[in-house]
Amino acid sequence: DVVLTQSPLSLPVTLGQPASISCTSSQSLVRSDGNAHLTWFQQRPGQSPRRLIYKVSARDSGVPDRFSGSGSGTDFTLKISRVEAEDIGVYYCMQGIHWPWTFGQGTRVEIK
Amino acid sequence: QVQLVQSGAEVKKPGASVKVSCKASGYTFTDFYVHWVRQAPGQGLEWMGRIITKSGEAGYPEKFHGRVTMTRDTSITTVYMELTSLTSDDTALYYCVRDGRTWDLDQWGQGTLVTVSS
């Protein structure tokens, strides 16, 4: 199975400051058409996960532009340019290129 | 708008089975696959498989082979997930999730808590 390794697992942040989460895959997430597929989800406390970013860098409708995704091959990053209080929660990366689909362990973002 | 509404919480004894439903609305049901993902208390997300809503064909990871069955009823735009031979390790929130059609997931249901306890 493809292993997605997120770091850090816990991320204390200061409001208004940037934050960055890494997701490293044990196999390439590039399809035969040359496109990479890696998805980021946000899960706020007590809520279902919500998709933020798909196809590495495409932002979902309604997602603030302070969220951005980047990367290629096996290394991917989710960045928050200026953390706001509503960004608190757990962030997961996920791949759906290889069977079975797999998730990273999750990164808990909390206020310092 | 797209909605996935799941059935209510369940409490089961070890060895029993559970069947969770997921009612889809707001889009053409057979145009999108549906997946199931579970989350044990305080833990991460685990993919359980998916069903092709048009054909009814389902696929599961090896871990769940023989224990999970996903079905659908197109007449009522509902997907079902049945898990058998339950143990305490199956205590979790179970989510149905629509396929995003870009090798990912987009819309999530509200989750169904399944508790396995003697």
Helices and strands in order:
The complex is a heterodimer of chains A (112) and B (118).
Chain A: E1 4-7, E2 10-13, E3 19-25, E4 39-43, E5 50-54, E6 58-59, E7 67-72, E8 75-80, E9 89-95, E10 102-103, E11 107-111
Parallel strand pairs in A: 2-11
Antiparallel strand pairs in A: 1-3, 3-8, 4-5, 4-9, 5-6, 7-8, 9-10, 9-11
Chain B: E1 3-6, E2 10-12, E3 18-25, E4 34-39, E5 46-51, E6 58-59, E7 68-73, E8 78-83, E9 92-99, E10 105-108, E11 112-116
Parallel strand pairs in B: 2-11
Antiparallel strand pairs in B: 1-3, 3-8, 4-5, 4-9, 5-6, 7-8, 9-10, 9-11
Textual characterization of the structure:
The complex is a heterodimer of chains A (112) and B (118). With 112 residues, chain A is mostly beta strands. Helix content of chain A is 0%, strand content 47%. In chain A, the strands form 2 sheets. In chain A, strands 2, 4, 5, 6, 9, 10 and 11 form a 7-stranded mixed β-sheet that branches. A 4-stranded antiparallel β-sheet of chain A has the order 1-3-8-7, with no helix packed on it. In chain A, a hairpin with a 6-residue loop joins strand 4 (39-43) and strand 5. In chain B, 41% of the residues are buried. Chain B has 118 residues and is mainly beta. Chain B is built from no helices and 11 strands. In chain B, the strands form 2 sheets. In chain B, strands 2, 4, 5, 6, 9, 10 and 11 form a 7-stranded mixed β-sheet that branches. In chain B, strands 1-3-8-7 form a 4-stranded antiparallel β-sheet, with no helix packed on it.
* Spans of at least 5 consecutive residues with low confidence of chain A: none
Task: Compute the number of helices of chain B.
Answer: 0
**How far apart are the termini of chain B?**
40 Å
The SSE order of chain B reads EEEEEEEEEEE
Largest sheet of chain A: 7 strands, mixed
Mean pLDDT of chain B: 97
Average of per-residue pLDDT values of chain A: 97
Basic shape of chain A: globular
Q: Tell me the total number of β-strands of chain A.
A: 11
**Quaternary state, please?**
heterodimer
Number of helices of chain A: 0
The biggest sheet of chain B, with number of strands, parallel, antiparallel or mixed sense and barrel status, is: 7 strands, mixed
What is the end-to-end distance of chain A? Answer: 35 Å
General shape of chain B: globular
Question: Which structural class is indicated by helix and strand composition of chain A?
Answer: mainly beta
- Portion in strands of chain A: over 45%
Radius of gyration of chain B: 13 Å
